[in-house]
Specification:
The protein has about 200 residues and is mostly beta strands. The chain is built from 1 helix and 13 strands. The chain has 2 domains: about 100 residues, Beta Barrel (OB fold (Dihydrolipoamide Acetyltransferase, E2P)); about 90 residues, no CATH class.
Length: about 200
């Protein structure tokens, strides 16, 4: 990947995480996961996992990216990752996905906060201090400003990094993850789009 392309992906990630975390008293962005029905001009129709089909305005300036699969072994001490995880009854965190950030995006969205995969779901964006092989997978020792966590990553959990994509990748049948602001019932305005590419589905 060229330096320009790496920078473009990094900037896209910064925008993605920024709007993902952004919250205002008036309008709170939603995370929309589903399958593309159509793209007609700037209107993207997505059939959500929850069952309904929504319309999302994707303005020309909105960044579109993808993810590509990497090996779990590529996570090293010093990597900066974002990992969604579920909290067990024992308080331990088990990853449901891991996204490895390019170096240019280090520090993006840093911290540990709730996520929307379920009542016990969290997201941790942090530095990898150590990688420890465990009986149930690989344990990542993570640290961020103000705290630290240990997350177990089972072998079957998707591990990805960000990759370039364009609006031409927004084709029917592709899976997408969209951060969007509600405009009216059943309609949204996209702030960020991550689309399936080369068979790799956005796991976040």
């Amino acid at each position: 990947m060229s330096i320009r392309m790496k920078l473009g992906v990094a900037l896209a990630i910064l925008a993605f995480v920024g709007v993902t975390l952004a919250q205002t008293p008036a309008v709170k962005p939603e995370r929309i996961r589903g399958e593309i029905v159509s793209l007609d001009g700037d209107t993207l129709k997505v059939h959500r996992r929850s069952g309904e089909t929504v319309s999302i305005e994707v303005k020309p300036a909105v960044a579109v990216s993808a993810v590509r699969a990497i090996k779990l072994s590529e996570i090293k001490p010093g990597s900066f990752v974002g990992t969604a995880a579920m909290t067990g009854a024992d308080g331990k965190l088990t990853a449901t996905e891991v996204s490895v950030f390019p170096e240019a995006a280090r520090g993006t969205g840093e911290g540990h906060y709730t996520w929307d995969f379920g009542p016990n779901s969290t997201m941790t964006n942090a530095n990898v201090d150590a990688v420890v092989e465990g009986t149930s997978g690989r344990d990542l020792k993570l640290s961020y400003k103000g705290g630290s966590k240990t997350v177990t990553v089972p072998a079957n959990v998707p591990v990805v990094t960000f990759a370039p994509a364009t609006r031409s990748d927004l084709t029917p049948g592709k899976k997408v993850f969209v951060v969007a602001t509600p405009a009216q019932p059943g309609a949204f305005v996209a702030q960020r789009v991550v689309v399936e590419k080369d068979g790799v589905v956005p796991p976040m």
